[in-house]
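User: Hi! I have a protein structure encoded as tokens and I'd like to know what sequence might fold into it. I'm fairly new to this, so please keep things simple.
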């Protein structure tokens, strides 16, 4: 509206005034002026229609519903930091546990839920999710006060490409992100599997297999791919469906398939998104939203003309989240981060920066916005970097992190999810796990 008013003030109003002042002296000339005015009106309307469609952002000035962020400072992942995280969440009105007793039920994880812990396992060393953090999260789930009877799957799609060997992800890296560098995701899961239903599933193994949903009679593991591209982001939304080693049939989008009743138990499937915070050479920042690139099949969508990775800078991960399954909560691993602009997503031991922070939120967009500004950028500055524009969520230049994060937010809002980049609508709650540590 401001642009339209400016155009009217600069072009239209002076012309109208000129026509009125000369209408009695120059009749024929006024006709010409009138024609010019009409032409300018048409082209002006077309111009402003075009400009209004260049950046399909919603109004960023305010958000009606606030988003909460919970921060534990001074934790290494295996020292009780997760317990303190759950305590501050409970205290501030976002309880982790959904209880059988009490009204209303407001918690996130029920005792019989099937929980996918979506990690980053495409990269080894500090490029992948901290396995100490994952172990602590699994322990928290199985310690459910109602007695855990559900199932946990640690999963990711390394896309069978890139990674340290060029062949994709692994749950059994030799060099891992943990205090004990030999502690792989497989080893973490093995420490629980004798007593609980805890397993891994590397979706790389099914990323080129196209299948149909269980309701259509297809019981094979593989990927569902939407044949219609999203008109805004260009992504062909895709997601895995698979059978766990305990015989549970999981559709990432639809939920848990009950073969006897031939229906999906939609509410039993929960996603805990556990990315590692780091820079990204193409996209600026890899965090909560970018971690969903480990959900779709990059290979199938590329072949079918709706390449998932090429959609990220257009907001494609917002589309992916919104049209499959939104994370119940995201727990951001910022214990070790790659704070060197443009050098990620790989991160070797000697190039990583230790910040000893974990951050959680039910809003992945607010989480990325806050973490980039308050963890990643300050760490980069402390290393001597001065150009932090690639990491800055306020940078709205096309293709930059701030731009595609806003586009992702818009996609999620279109799907009905509350996400925000309005700093006035973000509540941040801190707790110091070990105040004596120099963070």
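Assistant: Happy to help. Inverse folding works backwards from shape to sequence: for each of the 439 positions I chose a residue that suits the local structure. Here it is:
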């Amino acid at each position: 509206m401001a642009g339209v008013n400016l155009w009217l003030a600069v072009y239209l109003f002076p012309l109208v005034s000129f026509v009125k002042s000369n209408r009695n002296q120059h009749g024929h000339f006024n006709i010409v002026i009138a024609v010019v005015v009409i032409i300018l009106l048409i082209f002006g309307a077309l111009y402003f229609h075009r400009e209004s469609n260049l950046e399909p952002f919603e109004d960023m000035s305010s958000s009606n519903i606030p988003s909460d962020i919970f921060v534990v400072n001074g934790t290494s992942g295996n020292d009780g930091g997760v317990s303190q995280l759950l305590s501050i969440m409970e205290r501030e009105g976002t309880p982790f546990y959904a209880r059988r007793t009490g009204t209303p039920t407001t918690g996130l994880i029920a005792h019989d839920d099937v929980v996918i812990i979506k990690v980053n396992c495409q990269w080894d060393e500090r490029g992948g999710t901290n396995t100490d953090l994952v172990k602590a999260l699994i322990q928290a789930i199985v310690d459910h006060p109602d007695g855990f009877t559900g199932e946990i799957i640690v999963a990711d799609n390394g896309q069978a490409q890139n990674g340290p060997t060029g062949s994709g992800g692994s749950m059994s890296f030799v060099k891992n992100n943990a205090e004990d560098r030999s502690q792989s995701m497989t080893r973490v899961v093995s420490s629980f599997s004798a007593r609980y239903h805890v397993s891994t599933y590397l979706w790389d193994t099914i990323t080129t297999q196209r299948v149909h949903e269980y309701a259509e009679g297809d019981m094979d593991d593989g990927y569902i791919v939407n044949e219609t591209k999203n008109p805004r982001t260009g992504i062909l939304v895709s997601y895995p469906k698979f059978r766990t080693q305990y015989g549970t049939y999981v559709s990432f989008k639809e939920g848990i398939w009950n073969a006897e009743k031939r229906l999906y138990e939609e509410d039993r499937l929960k996603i805990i998104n556990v990315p590692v915070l780091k820079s990204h050479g193409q996209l600026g920042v890899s965090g909560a939203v970018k971690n969903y690139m480990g959900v779709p099949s990059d290979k199938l969508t590329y072949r079918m003309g709706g390449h998932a990775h090429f959609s990220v800078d257009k907001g494609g991960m917002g589309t992916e989240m919104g049209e499959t399954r939104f994370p119940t909560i995201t727990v951001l691993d910022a214990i070790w981060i790659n704070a060197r602009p443009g050098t990620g997503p790989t991160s070797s031991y000697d190039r990583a920066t230790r910040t000893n922070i974990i951050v959680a939120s039910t809003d992945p967009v607010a989480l990325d916005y806050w973490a980039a500004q308050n963890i990643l950028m300050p760490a980069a500055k402390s290393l001597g970097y001065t150009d932090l524009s690639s990491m800055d969520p306020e940078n709205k230049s096309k293709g930059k992190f701030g731009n595609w994060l806003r586009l992702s937010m818009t996609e999620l809002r279109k799907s009905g999810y509350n996400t925000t980049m309005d700093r006035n609508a973000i509540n941040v709650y801190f707790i110091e796990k070990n105040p004596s540590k120099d963070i």
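A useful reference point when you look it over: Residues 19 and 27 are 9 Å apart (CA to CA). Feel free to ask if any position seems puzzling.
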